[in-house]
UniProtKB/TrEMBL annotation:
Coiled-coil spans in chain: none
Similarity annotation: Belongs to the GTP cyclohydrolase I type 2/NIF3 family.
Alphabetic keyword roster: Metal-binding
NCBIfam families with a match to the protein in the record: YbgI_SA1388 (TIGR00486)
UniProt keyword Cell inner membrane, yes or no: no
Protein name (Swiss-Prot/TrEMBL): GTP cyclohydrolase 1 type 2 homolog
Amino acid sequence: MIIQEVIDHIEEFAPTAYAEDFDNVGLLVGDAQTEVNGALITLDTLESVVDEAIEKNCNLIISFHPIIFSGLKKLNGKNYVERTVIKAIQHNIAIYAIHTALDNQYKGVNDMISEKLKLKNRQILIPRRNSIKKLTTFIPTADADKLRKALFAAGAGSIGNYDNCSFNLEGKGSFKPNEDANPTIGEVGEVHFEEETQIGVTYPVHSEDKILKTLFQNHPYEEVAYEISSLGNSHQHLGMGMIGELENETEEEEFLKLVKKTFHSGCVRHSKLRGKPVKRVAVLGGSGSFAIEQAKKAGADMYITADLKYHDFYKAEEKLVLADIGHYESEQFTKNLLHSYLTKKISNFALILADTNTNPIKYI
């Protein structure tokens, strides 16, 4: 198996089309056509992680965080980023990063946090907008059913918990083939009227190439009439953060102790306790101060995230409890998620969970 085939599996799960604009995801180091000996799965890629990959004969590192985030202008080994990249190149080790593509995945980072906390009735905290498109096409009625089924199989027509969704309108289309045409129906130089069905289906942005390929392969006309429009609708299964409910209300301090134990946090920094039980919990792995207001609007009793600054804690305004469990701690199970997914897809080389602890923060 080559690296590109591994990437295809990863991006089927978490398409890079849904990574945030500021991010740097995908294959950061290496040639996608290289054959894979083994893959090391890690939260961060550091020199020590590259050393572990060398020791375990892995020529691919699959990392949550990208080692190259800002542009590299030099490769002189003067900082940890440059040294890591140089060592990977010297040993022909490729590095792939997934980061916010997985953050935005429904079964991604925040679902793992919610699973550890046993939250029920989970929903995306900040559903992603502008991630849905609509295809409208016109086809002879006799061929409409075949095309609909093919588009559904390609990933079109899914809305929330429903699939095979489409809108169909019967009508009559007209066209006149010119002398260069090779019409499937009708004659050159003659106006032809055909009983047609207008089919409308929505699809996720990342599937567009596949959807259009399916359309062209299953449409009988030489010239396929179709329209594509971008929708501002929120995608229910894409976005940042998650909110859910505990099975039973829990006293605040007791729940914070449970969170600390579950995520092996050196400490949990939190805002003022309200003296109210915790039932509804919002979570967002990594730096999550930007979602505080959304957690309030969603009615969360507690919001669990990381990297909160001094003034962020004032934003609680006693409407909820803010809990900072640490960046590494909130995302530590991500590599387990990737390992579990890929082992179900790939069996012809070793997929190894990195042993290296890459948490740069220590507690006394």
